[in-house]
Amino acid sequence: MNLTTAHHDGPVDQQSSEKLARRGLELRRMSNEMKEFEPWFEAVSRGFLDAEPTDVQRDATHARFDYRRLIGVIDSTGVMPEIPVGTFASWISAVSLPGEHVVTTCAISDVTVAPTHRRRGIARAMMEGELRRAAAVGIPMATLTVTESNIYGRYGFAPAATAGRWIIDAKRASWIGPDYPGRLDFISRAAWRELAPEIFERVRPGRPGEAKMPGGYWDRFAGTRPDVEKPGKRRAVQYTDTEGVVRGVALYAITENKEDFTKSHLEILSLISDDDAAHGALWRFFIDHDLIGEIRMDEGGIHDPVLWMISDQKAAKVTLFDHHYLRILDLPVVLASRTYATPGRFLLDISDPLDITGGRWLIDIDASGSAQISPAPNAVPDGVTEARMGIGELGAIMAGQVSAATLAAAGRIETTAAVALARAFSWHEQARLSFVY
Ligand SMILES: CC(C)(COP(=O)(O)OP(=O)(O)OC[C@H]1O[C@@H](n2cnc3c(N)ncnc32)[C@H](O)[C@@H]1OP(=O)(O)O)[C@@H](O)C(=O)NCCC(=O)NCCS
């Protein structure tokens, strides 16, 4: 059985199943057939405070959901027992780590528990069980994005790619960046839907923290699925270089400012490019756009070069937020799956609240940045420094964005070699994830 099937069709975790059964609840893998999907989806919508899904929303999601493993918790004593009181979804994905390494991951979403059944350990049972299952089938890492930040640390997750919410005062910003020799053209949303994944796939491996994006997400961005409201508000542009190669595409929507039509709001929904010129040219298109007062972009990079392409840096406000959470499930595999910035020898003593992975490991990084991982001896060898931390802290520094020195200063890593550790785990490419799970 391949990994995707083993994950998608595998049984639920015995331990969590028994734990919930003792409370009269059933942990169940739900099929993707409409009769099970529909009540599951209804529960997810309710859990995220949405209205009952319309037929169009249900069908559009159902048509694009086969790749997900769906979990439900059933309370057969309830008034509507077919609607699960707990939901959870996961799928096989991949996350990039420094040095163009791509690690197979278990991406997690749709975690909800009915408000009538909250704080009885249902979410914990689903999460623990599904993480154990993912580790058991050989997936080395789990990932998610969060609505509330204080839920997932207890399971060994931590934010590894911070995102920036950009708000730019367009009237103040004024472009001082280069002139670009290529050309800009409007394209249809359908053309954007074709081009964007191609360009994204070219850059994804080199961008730590970035994940494979499921097809339905591209359709949602483009408005090429029937459940997207006002799809026509989304406009798409492309940048073509002087050789005729499309190097970047962007998608945006404008909301009229009724109080002052010259200061309407422009939201950048997606900006994807495979070179600096396309990135700059698309930003320039937005900064120079007539009749715009405010430009907004969520899930932006935190070190976007656009800051150095506008005359007034105070015109840009960047709010940082924890975005892509990683959870290491197979420590030696993940440690060996990135390039390190500097050589060094460290003994990592890693604790795991769920005892899935962890332990004491020796990491030996050579001059090329490749690491050999081996079980550590009891005594710390000469020339090696020890660092103690939780599995979450290790996940946080894996993409090279969060500094080990910062976590040491915060008391989250114990070591006498914080600077050496920080240098080794740092990376020059900014980590980011350009969508929400
Ligand atoms: C968040 C949610 C899934 C929690 O479900 P739950 O079944 O009540 O959670 P559990 O009873 O299993 O609690 C597990 C642990 O998480 C803690 N916890 C749960 N929800 C929390 C919250 N919102 N904030 C802080 N801690 C929370 C509990 O205190 C408990 O801690 P402990 O086991 O370490 O003592 C549920 O409240 C929910 O559906 N919320 C709305 C949707 C949502 O936000 N989903 C998360 C998407 S990222």
Automatic annotation (TrEMBL):
Any one GO molecular function term:
aminoglycoside N-acetyltransferase activity
Q: Name one GO biological process term.
A: aminoglycoside antibiotic catabolic process
**SUPFAM superfamilies per record:** Acyl-CoA N-acyltransferases (Nat), SCP-like
Cite the N-acetyltransferase domain residue spans from the record: 25-181
Pfam families, alphabetically? Answer: Acetyltransf_17, Acetyltransf_9, SCP2_2
Source domain of life: Bacteria
Q: Where is this region: Disordered?
A: 1-21
Q: Where is the composition biased (Basic and acidic residues)?
A: 1-11
**Record bears the keyword DNA-binding:** no
Tell me the InterPro entries matching this sequence: Acetyltransf_17, Acetyltransferase_Eis, Acyl_CoA_acyltransferase, Eis_dom, GNAT_dom, SCP2_sterol-bd_dom_sf
Q: Which UniProt keywords apply?
A: Transferase
* Name listed for the protein in its UniProt record: Putative acetyltransferase
